[in-house]
Amino acid sequence: MLTESTSNLLIDDLEAPPLTLKKLAWKRFTRHKMAMVGGLFLILLILYSFGGSLFVEEKYANLTNPPIRLSPPSLQHPFGTDTVGRDVLARTIYGGQISMIIGILAVIIETSLGILIGAVAGYYGGKIDSLLMRFTEAMLNIPEIFLLIVMAKFFGNKIPNLTLLGRTFSGSVVVIVVIIGLTSWMYLARIVRAEFLSIKENDFILAAKATGTSNGEIIIRHILPNSIAPIIVSATLGVANAILAEAYISFLGLGVQPPTATWGNMLDGANNYIESAPWLWFFPGLLILLTVLSINFLGDGLRDAIDPHSRAI
Amino acid sequence: MHPLLAVNNLVTQFVIPEGIVYAVNGISFRVNPGETLAVVGESGCGKSVSMLSLMGLIPTPPGKIVSGEAIYDGKNLLALKDEEMEKIRGKEIAMVFQDPMTSLNPVLTIGKQITEALICHLGLTTAEARERAINLLDMVGIPEAQRRLEDYPHQFSGGMRQRVMIAMALSCEPNLLIADEPTTALDVTIQAQIVELVLRLKQQRNMAVIWITHDLGVVAGIADRVNVMYAGLIVEEANVDELYESPNHPYTRGLLGSLPRIDRRRDRKLIAIPGSPPSLLVKPKGCPFRSRCPIGKEVCQMEAPKLRNVSENHRVACWIDISSGEQISG
Q1: Where are the domains of chain A?
Q2: What pTM was estimated for this model as a whole?
Q3: Strand, coil or helix: B233
Q4: Strand runs (DSSP E) across chain B, as ranges?
Q5: What is the pLDDT of residues B115-151, one digit of tens each?
Q6: CATH number of the domain at A32-306, please?
Q7: ipTM of the complex
Q8: Please, which pLDDT band fits residue A14 given cuts at 50, 70 and 90?
Q9: Which residues on chain B are in Cβ contact (under 8 Å) with A17?
Q10: Helix A186-199 with A126-141: angle, nearest 10 deg
Q11: Which residues of chain A make contact with B105, given a CB cutoff of 8 A?
Q12: Which of A107, B29, B152, B274 has the lowest tally of Cβ within 10 angstroms?
């Protein structure tokens, strides 16, 4: 006699399709608790920065009011005011937007460059490969912070302010995005090259060539999708690094210029008030910390989910 | 008859740290429209390398096509530019590889991989290409073709994947199909199905086939003509019946003698060819088979024999007349 449970087992259940790659990855990702927490925090931080602008106007964030400078957190100014009396809460909202936008745009540049250079070097090999890789190594040998500072000094204030969607951005935002992108692609290029070197030896690449597929299509349609996992992971972690890099140079006063706020340039000058006005550095610092940590956890979870073999590295 | 493909004196070598690998040492053959040419020989005798050379798929470096020409449709394939060769690969000459488990891209659906060639060679729209892909999968005997277009390679068995590979190879209706041991990685019943499938499609389309294999049983079943290769050379070529009837090269004799035969007495031992093939790292001198040859003479040490006519459709590269055991004259 069939029991309740076996009789419910229909033929459809037995023939249920196996988990697709995406479902499998999602399953592995959700098992990673820290990544879920990181993802959640990141969503909250994005809501804070971008949703916050619905409640606070940008003008208010840039409004100076010297008489109330350096006032501690209060109902009026929950995060206090800065050295010229601007509301710190409002500035963390608008600064967050710029910091995140810088992070993402810089990573787009970094990833494009890294993929381009790594793919060409790995796929074509030979002299092109040596040339590109020696260049990559040369770039890696120069300390990144040094590159950032020199380039920031060199290009700073040379780009006029630009207006986008009714908002004015300091031209320095563009400079920072470009120089972070230009100084951070090397690791990704190496990863992509290594992936290409191994994937191009596969039989299916030979088979694709045998059907007349051009080199460009083999790179884009056949090899790149096979190496996408480490690229996604690296790009995710790259956002965190770009936000940190922006914070460095803005803290040094070479980054994004006021009145445009970023979490980084809010820290600029706060070192003079470490004890007397801790709210100046605490809130932007906390936000940077949370964002970078969340992204790192998220990236870790993504790595486990979509690129499980790289765990050993 | 005007041959579809004429290969003359093809020489392919690989330069590796240990020296030069003499993989293909000057082979010439032709393929007529609609015929099946089998290329047989043991592993490493240059069967695959010669075919990959024709297709321009030898990795360079380390590979190098030293000399030779391959005339197809009035053009020398070995001298074509990359872009011109891309138009021929897949469209005019298609190839099926040995291992279906690794010949499909694991991250693309079957549909995407089949339609790729159709879109690029025939200029079909995505929708037309899909329609065509469904027909192709149907033709190679994959049930529920429409649904399976969305599936990934890992959802197919080995035999099914080889069917997909064949569908892809035939998608642009090539004039010549090069099948590089397409059944080696499959089990026997599936092998028979694949052989039958290729034969049927070949007849429907009057396509020429070069079938690389070391399975002499398959050769007897499908081929019109056979090239026997040894150490990068063609040592014998003949119509299939004539080759099995009266093999003229001692190597071919050895190959056929080592086959189990259902019509022979069971207690008769199989005869193996003694020794092993020469190292391809040594520059060839004399007949490559001389060290294993039961009937070799002095002349075999000195000079490699050229192919000579035995009959109208039968040529052999051997200094010795196999029936008399005497050195041929002139």
Answers
A1: 32-306
A2: 0.80
A3: strand
A4: 5-16, 19-31, 36-40, 63-72, 75-76, 93-96, 176-180, 208-213, 225-230, 233-239, 308-311, 314-316
A5: 888 888 888 888 888 988 898 888 888 888 888 888 8
A6: 1.10.3720.10
A7: 0.80
A8: low
A9: 155
A10: 150
A11: 204, 208, 222, 225-226
A12: B274
